[in-house]
Amino acid sequence: MPPKRNQTDSNAAEICVETNNFRQVVEHFDENGNIINQMATRLAIECQICMCKNLPLVNPHFAELPGDTHELYVVLPRCGHAFGFLCMEQWARTQYGRSSRSSRPSCPTCRTPLHCDRGHSSELEAYGRASGDIKMQDKDIMDIRAMLLNNTCGRCREQRENAEQPEGPSASLVSSSQPTRGSLVASWEDEVIEVAFVGGGAQDDNEPPQIEEERLEDHTEEARRNR
């Protein structure tokens, strides 16, 4: 149950938010992204991959502005779990490299697939870019809440809209471009992770799917240099 908004008394019992499930985290913020109980709410959300850095989400009444112990984070749209941006990068590269080409990427916490059932690509935006800017933190929370409320795959929504207009030029294009099998390709550009499947279709079942590894390396290094 979300906390009541009138719990602003400094004598109220302290609330420590530690879960990395943002479906629960956003319950501690109002519709404008402000912490509801600012005088009693601590935010200490640890990345569940590295278990050593926190997400840069803070209550200035309790904590100093994010520093070396915090990192940018991503929120998975289907389940709501959040992880450090670089940790998610490393996890994706390790778990879905050459040794597990048949695997589909899933949440490290609950194993919910990152993709919809049709394997459409997913973009995971990095939040917490303006460390210490509470107004930007408020905006991040509003954006995350909106994403979680509307977690339907964007391409699936586009397909449904196209299906309602059968004469439209794009209605047949999307349906014909669906990969039937393939491998994970992840690219990192401008602090956005794009996870997608490629290959399949006419590919022989005995052939290993191809991975665009050079592209992956290039974008990963570029993202690191830009930080």
UniProtKB/TrEMBL annotation:
UniProt feature, compositional bias: Basic and acidic residues: 212-227
Residue ranges, annotated region (Disordered): 158-186, 198-227
Gene3D superfamilies named in the record: Zinc/RING finger domain, C3HC4 (zinc finger)
SUPFAM superfamilies with a match to the protein in the record: RING/U-box
GO terms of molecular function: zinc ion binding
Polar residues compositional bias, start-end: 172-181
Keywords: Metal-binding, Zinc, Zinc-finger
Record-linked InterPro entries: Znf_RING, Znf_RING/FYVE/PHD
Residue ranges of every copy of the RING-type domain listed in the record: 47-111
Protein's name according to its UniProt entry: RING-type domain-containing protein
Organism lineage string: Eukaryota, Fungi, Dikarya, Ascomycota, Pezizomycotina
